[in-house]
Design goal:
312 residues; alpha/beta; Rossmann fold; seven-stranded parallel beta sheet; binds nicotinamide-adenine-dinucleotide
């Protein structure tokens, strides 16, 4: 058993990770300011979690949260490409300065390892698929630029201070507790909620943009592996299913699983969005023994079940 910190633990991925850490007997502390996450996500865990309420932009709050833990899973961030297009400043402060605060506090407290949630958005519109870590990043959204800066700080802190850091580039994660209702809601919970309610979904652009949609349990497992694998130190690794699905096909699959007709309109393309994204997960397999074990359709089924249960 060890004591661990999950920043952003009241959010979608953070709360799923906290649940897995509790299941294996860890003492879990969460740092969150509840801006996009919720207390309900922590209550849903049904177990004791120590909460440090605070902002990642405050070194003092981050330092308090980091004290005495063995591993930091740094999930806290202001996500969403559209949010960063509307307001590049606030997400960049949280995602870059917040990560620096985590790294500095971890250095100052002699924390064993930091696992950082990076993003496939660092690649931008790179031509060669599948995307592997040896391709030069070319982010096009402010969010992608900030995530790239943050992951480079992780690598830098490994080199200059000997800190054990690992950055995981998540690709379009979905699953239980992902918020379906915010202005910046991700496509899967939004489609499930709308199709189930008999509403009309809006597909951005022609809907042929394709993503590597990744079920959250796979991402959680990658974090657990990355916290311990010796070879992972100082590395940046893709974490994804290693496949790709268009938004049009996704909507059809969700309709079929819900047994509902899909009524849709097309909206404008999202600025900053990437057209095609599909990960090569060979490095994660070799370095941390990662295998995506829950497939897209099974993941969608589990997500639908949980979202509909939440709604009742
Ligand atoms: N969901 C995805 O598809 C995806 C893809 C790639 C990377 N990521 C990364 O994974 C991580 C988790 O994302 P998520 O989808 O669970 O998002 P989320 O919004 O559900 O969770 C983020 C959490 O961070 C907290 N937070 C935000 N700003 C904060 C601040 N200033 N101080 C303290 N806490 C703050 C929020 O309250 C929330 O609980 C993020 O770093 C995100 O960038 C997510």
């Amino acid at each position: 058993m060890s004591r661990v910190l999950v920043t952003g633990g009241a959010g979608f991925i953070g709360s799923n990770l906290a649940e897995a850490l509790l299941d294996r007997g860890d003492d879990v502390r969460v740092l969150d300011n509840f801006s996009t996450g919720s207390r309900a996500n922590l209550v849903a865990l049904g177990r004791d979690v120590e909460v440090v309420e605070g902002d990642l932009r405050s070194y003092e709050r981050v330092h308090t949260a980091v004290r005495g833990v063995e591993v930091v899973f740094h999930q806290g961030a202001l996500g969403s490409v559209p949010r960063s297009v509307q307001d590049p400043l606030t997400p960049t402060a949280v995602n870059v300065e917040g990560t620096l605060n985590v790294l500095l506090a971890a250095r100052d407290e002699g924390i064993r390892r930091i696992v950082f949630a990076s993003s496939s958005s660092v690649y931008g519109n790179v031509g060669r698929m599948p995307l592997s870590e040896d391709q030069a990043p070319n982010p096009i959204s402010p969010y992608g630029v900030a995530k790239l800066a943050a992951e480079r700080f992780c690598v830098s802190f490994h080199h200059v201070y000997g800190l054990e850091t690992v950055a995981l580039r998540y690709f379009n994660v979905f699953g239980p507790r992902q918020d379906p209702s915010s202005q910046y809601a991700a496509v899967i919970p939004r489609f499930i909620r709308t199709i189930d309610g008999g509403g009309t979904i809006t597909i951005d652009g022609d809907g042929e943009q394709s993503k590597d949609f990744t079920y959250v349990e796979n991402v959680v497992r990658a974090n657990l592996l990355a916290a311990d694998a010796a070879a992972a130190v100082g590395r940046v690794l893709n974490v994804a299913m290693g496949g790709t699905e268009s938004v049009n096909a996704l909507a059809e699959t969700i309709g079929r699983l819900l047994d509902k007709e899909v009524v849709h309109v097309h909206g404008p393309e999202r600025p900053g969005d990437v057209r095609l994204s599909c990960a090569d997960v060979t490095a994660a397999r070799d370095v941390i023994g990662f295998e995506p074990t829950v497939g897209l359709e099974e993941g969608l089924r589990l997500t639908i079940e949980s979202l509909l249960e939440e709604a009742t």
